[in-house]
């Protein structure tokens, strides 16, 4: 009998692309394996227009996929690491992290090549408090309007003329072959990315040895060191829901892991930053240290204030 592996995924175009990417990699590695994609509609997809922070955060996009794996309807779930909650349910874990795509935030606009060219008081679309906070710090005059929906919906709202430009993850645009819409990639100094941005993760049953062996070659250790450091920082900050937290790690040419973290007020009036370098093997400790320093400078007060908004 042919061996089968079932991939659970959300049905948004980006999620489907990511699941198909993993399916293609697995088929290339194992020509005899039958790979099936099981598209699921999550509560988060149904509630796309409500403020996510108020209805339970990002976990809403993964619960159905996790139940599918626990019930045996699927073997793995493919996620954007940015959207994977800190905790996993009993019986499931994160088993592989793929090589990271461009981690930057992208400026998308038909009118202005850079944000610096945007006229005083114009309106830019983003629903990310993290992007909003860093943008407002640079350009306090700019009006920021909420922008929800999948990548294609957001681009349509831009084209409808609601905004002079919008901010999106470069990785999503590149994967959907929309890279030509990127007018500028924001530097890590101007817009520190979200934890896990640009990386894809594979979740599976903790006890499933067969699946672990199948997906092991997709794991990219350098990306994993960085993403696990970012996630350790996020876990210590308790940044589960939609909060203005940024964190990005890189491996430097000398082999050191370099993690930068940021917590800010959504209006950009206050931004706390911290950074650390160290051995990638200690990435999670580095993440906790960056979080501790942010907390020592008052990050907990910022996060508490934001949760009450
Ligand atoms: N929050 C939705 C989401 N989750 C992952 C990506 C982009 C791809 C990635 O970061 O891996 C996006 C879209 C966006 O923020 O523009």
Automatic annotation (TrEMBL):
EC number: 2.5.1.61
GO molecular function (one): hydroxymethylbilane synthase activity
Annotated Porphobilinogen deaminase C-terminal domain residues: 225-295
GO BP terms, alphabetized: protoporphyrinogen IX biosynthetic process
Family matches, as PROSITE patterns: PORPHOBILINOGEN_DEAM
Keywords: Porphyrin biosynthesis, Transferase
Class of the enzyme per the UniProt entry, highest EC level: transferase
Similarity field: Belongs to the HMBS family.
Other notes: The porphobilinogen subunits are added to the dipyrromethane group.
Subunit structure comment from the entry: Monomer.
The name this protein goes by in its record: Porphobilinogen deaminase
Native source species: Thiospirillum jenense
Protein's gene: hemC
